[in-house]
Structure to design on (389 residues):
């Protein structure tokens, strides 16, 4: 989920030229006016990531955080109903073996090529901490998941953000320069664009001195996964999540697949930090979800079908958007500003995501919901745009 936060003054080697408009906005909470006390000198200051809103009112159409509009696998429901709370007395399996096994089986890799965490945010944070430690700037695009620069800031990792081209495509050459690591969301957020595997492979192959993370949070909706490359490149880490395509954002499961060596490094750091991050129900229910391939295929198929319908209908209302391979569209209207639409939609109880300013300021990121939610969204937009015309 992307953020609207302001960047603080950056330290150590980060490019100060980018996001000039944001610089100078003190975001350290208490404001620049108040002087810091002595003890505050040692504080690890960071401007936290701002997640999308989670409104709890009934009747809201929630299309703002890319959750799945369908429930998790019925196998999860069955296990939840049968769950023995007695089990909670014990620490969970620190290896999360059941879950790791189910993931290894699904992707035809060995168990020691799988690392699991509390959502892919946890997995990504651990990977930043583990691998990005050279002092050289890491690279990720100017428009992408806005947690990357937060982790970089938290861990004191310098970074650079090469600009995507004018159609939000990755400029491969930017990633062939010396760097301290690379992170690419593919499909990207919030654009939905999927770069071909050949581009990803070239970046991985030409960076033997860097660990390359491919964040595949949305790959199940039609992207091309880099998973088949993990046995070929030791410096590749592919990260996925149960939060979008497996309808378990509330459960918090993410995982990485990579070389044995890379996974061993990740585990060493994780077990030096907190061994018991995956709780017992999550391990069991996560494994059940991973094993229900038929249900997964069915629900993902439904989301993709609705996405393609939404593309046609939004285009006929005057919207344009990159060709999304994710469960959202990044849409801009020919003459009505995104901010106005965002506010009107919210007023009507339809939540979408809006990232003010910069290159994203005239776009709405709209999660693909159920067919019924999609009809409500389209009916509202149609009426609103007609009344404006
Ligand atoms: C949603 C998302 C994540 C984080 O998902 P988790 O819920 O923490 O698994 C990571 N990367 C991208 C690009 C995302 O959109």
């Amino acid at each position: 989920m992307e953020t609207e936060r302001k960047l603080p003054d950056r330290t150590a080697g980060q490019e100060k030229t980018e996001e000039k408009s944001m610089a100078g906005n003190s975001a350290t909470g208490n404001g620049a006016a108040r002087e810091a006390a002595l003890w505050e000198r040692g504080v690890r200051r960071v401007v936290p990531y701002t997640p999308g809103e989670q409104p709890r009112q009934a009747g809201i159409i929630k299309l703002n955080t890319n959750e799945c509009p369908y429930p998790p696998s019925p196998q999860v429901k069955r296990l939840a109903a049968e769950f023995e709370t007695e089990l909670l007395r014990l620490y969970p399996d620190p290896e999360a073996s059941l879950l790791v096994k189910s993931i290894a089986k699904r992707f035809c890799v060995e168990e020691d090529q799988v690392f699991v965490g509390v959502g892919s945010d946890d997995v990504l944070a651990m990977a930043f901490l583990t691998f990005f430690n050279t002092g050289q700037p890491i690279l990720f695009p100017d428009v992408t998941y806005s947690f990357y620069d937060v982790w970089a800031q938290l861990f004191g990792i310098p970074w650079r953000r090469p600009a995507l081209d004018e159609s939000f495509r990755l400029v491969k050459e930017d990633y062939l320069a010396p760097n301290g690591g690379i992170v690419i969301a593919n499909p990207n957020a919030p654009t939905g664009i999927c770069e071909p595997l050949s581009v990803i492979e070239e970046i991985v192959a030409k960076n033997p001195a860097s660990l390359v993370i491919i964040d595949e949070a949305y790959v199940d909706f039609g992207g091309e996964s880099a998973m088949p490359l993990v046995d070929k490149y030791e410096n590749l880490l592919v990260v996925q999540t149960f939060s979008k395509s497996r309808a378990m954002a509330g459960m918090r499961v993410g995982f990485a697949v990579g070389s044995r060596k890379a996974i061993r490094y990740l585990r060493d750091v994780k077990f030096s930090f907190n061994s018991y991050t995956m709780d017992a129900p999550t391990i069991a229910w996560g494994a059940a979800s991973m094993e229900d391939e038929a249900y997964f295929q069915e629900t993902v198929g439904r989301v993709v079908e609705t996405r393609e319908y939404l593309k046609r209908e939004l285009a006929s209302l005057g919207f344009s958007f990159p060709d999304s391979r994710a469960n959202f569209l990044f849409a801009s209207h020919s003459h009505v500003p995104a901010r106005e639409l965002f506010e009107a939609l919210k007023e009507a109880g339809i939540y979408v995501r809006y990232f003010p300013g910069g290159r994203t300021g005239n776009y709405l990121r709209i999660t693909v919901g159920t067919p019924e939610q999609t009809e409500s969204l389209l009916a509202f937009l149609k009426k609103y745009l007609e009344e404006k015309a």
